[in-house]
Amino acid sequence: MHKSQLLFILLISFIIGIALGSFVEIPSLYLRLAFIPSLVAIGIAWRRSWKTVFGAMVAAVFVFGLLRIGDFRPTSTYLQHFADTNFKTTLYGYIDSEPTQKGSSQEFVLRVRRIQAPDYTIPEVIDEKILVIADTYPQRVYGEKLSLEGSIKLPKSYDDFDYIAYLAKDQIFTIVFRPEMQIITPQLGFWESTRIKFFSGIFKLKSVFEEKVGLAVVEPQASFLNGILLGSRQNIPQDLKDDFAKVGVSHILAISGYNIAIIGEVISWVLIFFMRRKVAFWFSLLAIFIFTILTGASASVIRAALMGGLVLLANNSGRIYNSKNALTLVAFLMIFINPLILRYDIGFQLSFMATLGLLYISPIFKIFLKKIPDYFNLKEILAMTVSAQVAVLPLLLYYFHNFSLIAVLANVVVLPFIPAAMLLGFVTGVGGMIWSVLGTILGAPAWALTAFIIFLIRFFADIPGLSFQILLSWPGAVLMYTLLFGGLSYWSWRQRKKGFEFEEA
């Protein structure tokens, strides 16, 4: 067995351990004792039976996955001790997320460094997070140091939404509603202060970028561009959001590996006319890096950038079918850092499956698109669009229980225009930051294309019905994926047996 296959098996065994531990809680003492048989087997079989040694290593890595998820389970925290009490608590810390406007309120995460309750102050310096829901004004900014006085609450889940788990994946277990706030000037460590200054600069750059797009393009096209580029949805009119949801294309407003891969592909395709393919590839990666910085470099954006960069790397090297280790390694690193995303982060799941579709399903779709003229890289974009949609369909049915024939048609029609809109929007924002007149000139084609996209979405939204509910359970989703990838693998094997070579990038 090749070394790459051994690495793949080890990574998968860890991920399976995380997956099992996400649903089944096993006492850590039993798990630590479970390491003993593996260590004994390795000691006895060393240099005698490498198969036995490797099998024991696989078992040990699997148990390590179970232990890792156990370390991240919601446990009792200082903030939880003060939750749902009949007195107010004072918290000292700084804003550790980009504040978002939601209706008549704003939300942000406060990283709490000190807690004070009536007649009692916790002496230790703590490091916990709490979700703050505050009044719209004054508008807060990332890194602002605050003292908050209010009643701490425990989050509650809804019938159709596990809100507790949704917050827990980010290590947030408590909420405070509309507290009294004051700006303070606490002393922070060097690295913490440096991190705050770095991300404050990033968010200011993002704000300037949004402003320049808004000056160059009228509404609602400007908000739409900032939505697909930066994931900023708060300024998009509610009726347009409703149309996006009705048509089934709301996902294009979220930063994903698909969005970033498309940006890289389009930039690479444009640059090929002026430079060698390999040089264009590195400029595409640079564009992804700049894009990641502009969007705020949040965990979800970094994850999407890694996924998108992986697709570019696979396409550039021409090794679409040898990318499973790279994709598995990216997933392993993300899950190792925060194991809770495997079960509770829908964005991670959709991004991973979409990337899997781009890497493995897209080459197969290209076979059926051979007769389509490849003007403006149309065949590549269409193959990526359809393959990503097919790969995420079981998850969409599982989480949202709705299948729409309009959504399938709308995605096929609308998504091929999104890469060009993202590229034009990106160029408009950067051009506006250089010179406002340049931004206005470059914003004209961006406005025209986004106006056409919005027209298409509203046109599809006005078509009645053609949607129905599918209550798909998680075993049903697993079965769908098994049939999908099993069938594609069998078909690909049959084609190779006949001597057919798949088209590579």
Please work out how many helical segments DSSP would assign: 19
**What's the order of the H and E elements?**
HHHHEEEEEEEHEEHHHHHHHHHHEHHHEH
Give the strand content. Answer: 5-15%
What's the alpha carbon Rg, rounded to whole Å?
25 Å
Net shape: globular
What would you call the structural class?
alpha+beta
Largest sheet: 9 strands, mixed
Task: List how many beta strands DSSP finds.
Answer: 11
Q: What is the mean pLDDT?
A: 82
Number of domains: 3
Low-pLDDT stretches: none
Distance separating the two termini? 28 Å
Residue share in helix: 55-70%
What is the strand and helix layout of this fold?
Layout: H1 3-23, H2 28-45, H3 50-71, H4 78-81, E1 89-95, E2 100-102, E3 105-117, E4 120-121, E5 128-135, E6 145-150, E7 152-153, H5 163-168, E8 172-177, E9 180-183, H6 190-216, H7 221-230, H8 238-247, H9 257-271, H10 277-294, H11 299-317, H12 324-337, H13 341-344, H14 346-368, H15 378-400, E10 402-404, H16 405-414, H17 418-434, H18 436-461, E11 467-469, H19 474-497
Parallel strand pairs: 5-8
Antiparallel strand pairs: 1-3, 1-6, 2-3, 3-4, 3-5, 6-9, 7-8, 10-11
Helix pairs in contact: 1-3, 1-12, 2-3, 6-7, 6-17, 6-18, 7-17, 7-18, 8-18, 9-10, 9-11, 9-17, 10-11, 11-12, 11-14, 14-15, 15-19, 16-18, 17-18
Give the tags:
single chain; 505 residues; alpha+beta; OB fold (Dihydrolipoamide Acetyltransferase, E2P); 3 domains; nine-stranded mixed β-sheet; two-stranded antiparallel sheet; 19 helices; 11 strands
Structure report:
The protein has 505 residues and is of the alpha+beta class. The protein has three domains: 3-71; 78-183, OB fold (Dihydrolipoamide Acetyltransferase, E2P); 210-497, no CATH class. The protein is built from 19 helices and eleven strands. The chain has helices at 3-23, 28-45, 50-71, 78-81, 163-168, 190-216, 221-230, 238-247, 257-271, 277-294, 299-317, 324-337, 341-344, 346-368, 378-400, 405-414, 418-434, 436-461, 474-497, and strands at residues 89-95, 100-102, 105-117, 120-121, 128-135, 145-150, 152-153, 172-177, 180-183, 402-404, 467-469. The strands form two sheets. Strands 1, 2, 3, 4, 5, 6, 7, 8 and 9 form a nine-stranded mixed β-sheet that branches. It starts with a helix and ends in an 8-residue tail after the last helix.
